[in-house]
Amino acid sequence: MVKLTRIYTRTGDAGETGLGDGSRVAKTDPRVAAYGTVDELNALLGLCRLQAGPDLDSALARVQNDLFDLGADLCTPEMEDPPFEPLRVVASQVAWLEAEIDRVNANLETLRSFILPAGSAAAAHLHHARTVARRAERETAALAATEAINAEVLRYLNRLSDYLFVLARDANRDAGGDVLWKPGASRDA
């Protein structure tokens, strides 16, 4: 269990931070950027929860907890013969997202146009979270190109952005529907 008695440690004052394996890296390290964006996404989901009803709030709370697992996973580099069992994202967490995507999407109309990230306040916040999830995925993919990471992390982030997309569409379903993109609509205005 985590026990924080002091919030500041002064160990990062020179631009370095500690990883889960005890090693130190620059705060500009791609690993730190990836889990930092996951943290940003988690905070944004907290804002999404302000617009959520009980069912969506519960689902987003689960995702927030999963994102802490994911951040811990990214924070702890892959090790041979680790001295402790690192927390890793597992396939069942990805499978839950897939089941949720299918459940929510079953109630939505088929898309025949791209949609704008707009509509209700809940939808706009969920679309914003979706874009941050995509950035976290890109940063994690960049990390994976140079260092070994748990493959379930990338799968989770990829499914999460899809989940946030269908949740945004669902939020707009009860608020007048999706806001459709009209290609070239303002070119002749």
From TrEMBL:
GO terms for molecular function: ATP binding; corrinoid adenosyltransferase activity. Residues 7-169 form the Cobalamin adenosyltransferase-like domain. Belongs to the Cob(I)alamin adenosyltransferase family. It comes from the Bacteria. The keyword Iron does not apply. Its EC number is 2.5.1.17. Gene3D superfamilies: Cobalamin adenosyltransferase-like. Pathway: Cofactor biosynthesis; adenosylcobalamin biosynthesis; adenosylcobalamin from cob(II)yrinate a,c-diamide: step 2/7. GO terms for cellular component: cytoplasm. This is Corrinoid adenosyltransferase. It catalyses: 2 cob(II)alamin + reduced [electron-transfer flavoprotein] + 2 ATP = 2 adenosylcob(III)alamin + 2 triphosphate + oxidized [electron-transfer flavoprotein] + 3 H(+); 2 cob(II)yrinate a,c diamide + reduced [electron-transfer flavoprotein] + 2 ATP = 2 adenosylcob(III)yrinate a,c-diamide + 2 triphosphate + oxidized [electron-transfer flavoprotein] + 3 H(+). It is found in: Cytoplasm. Keywords: ATP-binding, Cobalamin biosynthesis, Cytoplasm, Nucleotide-binding, Transferase. GO terms for biological process: cobalamin biosynthetic process.
